[in-house]
Amino acid sequence: MPPRRNASPWRDGWLRWAHHCPSPNCNARPAHACVDLIVLHSISLPPGEYGTGAVQDLFLNCLPWDAHPYYQQIRGLEVSSHFFITRGGEVWQFVSVHERAWHAGASHYRGRDGCNDDSVGIELEGLEGERFEAAQYAALLRLCDALAQRLPIRHIAGHEHIAPQRKHDPGNAFDWQRLAQHCAGTGIMIAPTVQHPTRGRC
User: Fold this and answer.
1) CATH number of domain containing 76
2) How confident is the model at residue 192 (pLDDT cuts 50, 70, 90)?
C-alpha cells in the first residue's frame, strides 16, 4: 500500500527519509526549551576533502586520529550535529530533534546563551569560502520545511552569527538569499550578512 501523502515525515524526532546514524554525543534539552532556531555549519574531513566518511566517524567517536595529520588538532573531540548534508544532497541524521546535539559550543543569539539548548544543527559538507552544490541547497530547503512542520522554527542562522568571535562557517559563499526567498512569507527570520568582529560581544 503506498504511503499517505499527508503522512508525517517524522517518527520520534527522527526524519524518515534521512540516513539514521545515532551519535552518543547528545543529551536532554532543558525543560521547556523552545526549539525555534536552525543553525547552519560547514564541515569537511580532512578539510577540503569530500565523501571520505570521516564526518560520520567524528560524530560517532570512531575517527581514526592517526589517519591524517589534521586529526591531531581535534583529537578526542566529542561533537555531533542533528543533520549532515553531503555534496550529493544525501541527508544523515545523528541526533533526534528532541535531544540536544553538541554542535554550537559557546554561543548567543536572539537574546539567549547556549544555542545547543534550543536549536537544530545542520552541517553542510563543504569548506568556508567555497560554494555549495545545488543538490545540497535542494536537500537543505526540504529539510528546513520538514523541521518547520515539526518544530516552532522562527530563526535560521549560521555558526558565524551565533559565535562570531570564533566561527566563520558556513562562510561567505553560502547563498543566504536563496534561503530567504524560500522562506519568504513563513515568518522565519534569516540571519543578516555577518561582519566578523575582532572584539566585543555577539
Assistant:
1) 3.40.80.10
2) confident
> Residue 10: inside a domain, yes or no?
no
Nearest partner of 101 among 44, 18, 29, 11, judged by Cα: 29
Average pLDDT, stretch 89-98? 98
Residue 115 has pLDDT above 80, yes or no: yes
Q: Which domain holds residue 53?
A: 35-190
Question: From CA 168, how far away is CA 147, in angstroms rounded?
Answer: 24
- pTM beyond 0.90: the answer is yes
For the chain, where are the alpha helices, taking DSSP H only? 54-59, 134-150, 159-162, 176-183
Which residues are known to be catalytic? 123
Per-residue pLDDT at 7: 83
Name residue 32's amino acid. H
Helix (H, G, I), strand (E, B) or coil at 190: strand
Checking if the pLDDT of 199 tops 50, the result is no
Between helices 176-183 and 134-150, what is the axis angle to 10°?
A: 40
What is the maximal distance between C-alpha atoms in the chain?
59
84 closest CA partner among 107, 128, 54, 117: 54
CA–CA dist 126, 119 (Å, integer): 21
